[in-house]
Specification:
This protein is 25% helix and 24% strand. The protein is of the alpha/beta class. Strand 3 (71-76), helix 3 and strand 4 (99-104) form a beta-alpha-beta unit. Helix 3 (88-94) runs parallel beside helix 4. The longest helix has 14 residues, at 4-17.
């Protein structure tokens, strides 16, 4: 049974893991804390970038010989395979770690088995400490492994009566500067930012990450543009970040650079959401920030492809204008997509609501 000291160390490991958000994909975010035999913290680490040392290796390097006979607290079961780095389970054994406590079992079939390897080497192993907290911090990667598609977070900003623009189409700015800054944090943490052609025509957004106090890898900018209507001078085609334009198989794309185009099957009303997510997954995209307008959001909801919702509600009323969601395939109250609210927080004058869709595990 894990001790209170180990639980505190695991909470620290979860905090450390979050530092890797936006830079480790397609790998998970992982944190590790090493306690010596007396229970003192002697090493900390987190997975900093894909292809680089894992969290356990950073923590073991910091601990040095003080790790011998100690305990490793890890947010994810130590890996058991050799990829771009060696197996962390073997590194822990060689460092003389006596006990390993992990939060979440590794569901990846190519990397799982670390706990068995550790136990076989005489290391005491315990799993399941603060599982829910650690899984929430690694939600994008875990979802992508289990569902074989990217985790989708739909973000929107609206007035209290659910309007994303006024009757005349004006929408700048419904939300506050603080909320808009928070959106850049979401962009920095996502592998891809997705909008539709309507948003592109209305706002000509650049979609690059700005104002984040860290060196971040710019997210892939994805435009769902069935008929390839994007203009050559659109800001989304600049060199601030990589771009992908998703079009129908028969669309005329002569005006676009061929390396930014991906052709997908048409479906009712546009492109197949599932085909889009499959194409992004093949490009190592494990998390998507959906910033499109109400039509694209409706298509994702209708396809059952929204995992998380973040809504920024401004203390304002419009009474008319487009709603945040449209054509989601919901016609009666019994069909309403019910959400579990995880957090309600003030962001400047606005309220940010974070919620998750209710979905049975597959």
């Amino acid at each position: 049974m894990a001790t209170a000291m180990e639980a505190d160390a695991m909470r620290r490991a979860i905090t450390l893991a979050a530092r890797g958000l936006g830079s480790t994909s397609p790998n998970p975010v992982v944190g590790c804390v090493i306690l010596d035999a007396a229970g003192h913290t002697v090493g900390e680490g987190w997975h900093q970038q894909a292809g680089g040392p894992h969290a356990e290796i950073h923590a073991l390097c910091a601990a040095g010989e003080r790790a011998r006979g100690g305990t490793a607290l890890v947010t994810l079961e130590p890996c058991n395979h050799t990829g771009r780095t060696g197996p962390c389970s073997r590194a822990l054994v060689e460092a003389g770690i006596a006990r390993v406590v992990y939060a979440v079992a590794d569901p990846n079939p190519t990397a799982t088995g670390g706990a068995v390897t550790l136990s076989a080497a005489g290391v005491e192993v315990e799993g399941g400490l603060l599982t829910d907290e650690a899984a929430r911090g690694n939600e994008a990667w875990l979802t992508s492994v289990r569902l074989r598609r990217p985790f989708v977070l739909w973000k929107y900003a609206s007035t209290l009566d659910g309007r994303i623009a006024a009757a005349d189409g004006t929408s700048r700015w419904i939300s506050s500067p603080q909320s808009r800054a928070d959106v850049h944090r979401l962009r920095a943490e996502a592998d891809a930012v997705v909008v539709g052609s309507g948003t592109l025509r209305a706002d000509d957004p650049q979609l690059a990450v700005r104002g984040v106090d860290a060196d971040v890898t710019q997210s892939l900018r994805v435009v769902v543009d069935t008929n390839a209507t994007v203009k050559p001078g659109a800001r989304v085609l600049d060199d601030a970040a990589p771009t992908l334009i998703a079009v129908a198989e028969d669309a005329d794309t002569a005006h676009l650079p061929e390396d930014v185009v991906v052709r997908l099957l048409r479906s009712e009303g546009g492109l197949s959401v599932h085909a889009l997510l499959a194409a992004l997954y093949e490009r190592d995209v494990r998390s998507v920030l959906l910033e499109g307008g109400p039509t694209l959001a409706g298509a994702f909801v209708r396809a059952g492809a929204v995992d998380k919702v973040v809504g920024y509600l401004a203390p304002a009323l419009l009474g008319a204008g487009p709603a945040a969601l449209r054509d989601a395939g919901i016609s009666t109250i019994a069909q309403a997509l019910r959400l579990d609210v995880a957090e309600v927080e003030r962001i400047g004058p606005d309220v940010r609501i974070t919620a998750y869709t209710r979905r049975e595990e597959t």
